[in-house]
Design a protein that fits this description.
By secondary structure, the protein is of the alpha/beta class. It contains six helices and nine strands; from the N terminus they run αββαβαβαβαβαβββ. Strands 5-4-3-6-7-9-8 form a seven-stranded mixed sheet, with helices on both faces.
């Protein structure tokens, strides 16, 4: 979907799978939000599906925009999603999408700059099974955000981080300490890197 079309009309996308399959989502007007394409979302969730069960997981959607990644997770069975975006227009779009899908009780929207939001979540000892990082392509903070996720211990054991970048960006960022970069895929104009925090080894009695 072109930025010009987003500027002239409120962008609309559809949920790919789950109980809300086919329902439309609205994105904020203007050029500041770049909705994740349906092709990229489908690829992300197809790859996750063979590696984790989304039922009951806690999700963090950073630079959430329309909330499409987090809401797709809710449709597929996630228990709760925390959305982070500094734009009030984006937050309004996320809340409207959640309300129309009757998902508001399974979500929390943080309207905050990302450093402040992650600091607050860290101090609250929050942890998440799945985290999406979709920083603006022109101001790619992916490496910095990954480091903060490790610093604040925001990834649950066996949890996953999905980082979406332009394929023209430098190589995918290194994994945070105690995490590993599992694999990287290129889908259209996107480079999508998957990171995992290994589960602790079982104790031996």
């Amino acid at each position: 979907m072109s930025f010009r079309k987003c500027l002239e009309n409120t962008c609309a996308m559809r949920i790919i799978a789950g109980h809300a399959h086919g329902r439309r989502l609205k994105a904020p007007r203007g050029l500041l939000t770049r909705p994740t394409s349906a092709r990229a979302r489908e690829s992300i969730f197809s790859r996750l599906a063979v590696r984790m069960d989304l039922d009951g997981v806690r999700v963090l959607d950073i630079f959430a925009g329309s909330g499409s990644l987090g809401i797709e997770s809710l449709s597929r069975g996630a228990a709760h999603v925390t959305f982070v975006d500094s734009s009030r227009d984006a937050a309004a779009a996320i809340r409207a999408n959640l309300a129309q899908l009757e998902l508001s009780d399974r979500a929390h929207v943080l309207v905050s700059e990302v450093h402040r939001a992650l600091g607050e979540l860290g101090r609250a000892h929050e942890s998440f099974d799945l985290i999406f990082v979709d920083a603006p392509f022109k101001d790619d903070m992916s490496a910095e955000v990954l480091a903060m996720l490790g610093e604040f211990n925001l990834v649950a054991p066996a949890g996953w981080i999905v980082v979406e970048q332009s394929k023209r960006a430098p190589a995918a960022p290194s994994a945070p300490e105690a995490h590993e970069r599992a694999f990287v895929a290129t889908i259209g104009d996107h480079r999508i890197a998957f990171y995992r925090r290994p589960a602790p080894a079982p104790s031996v009695e």
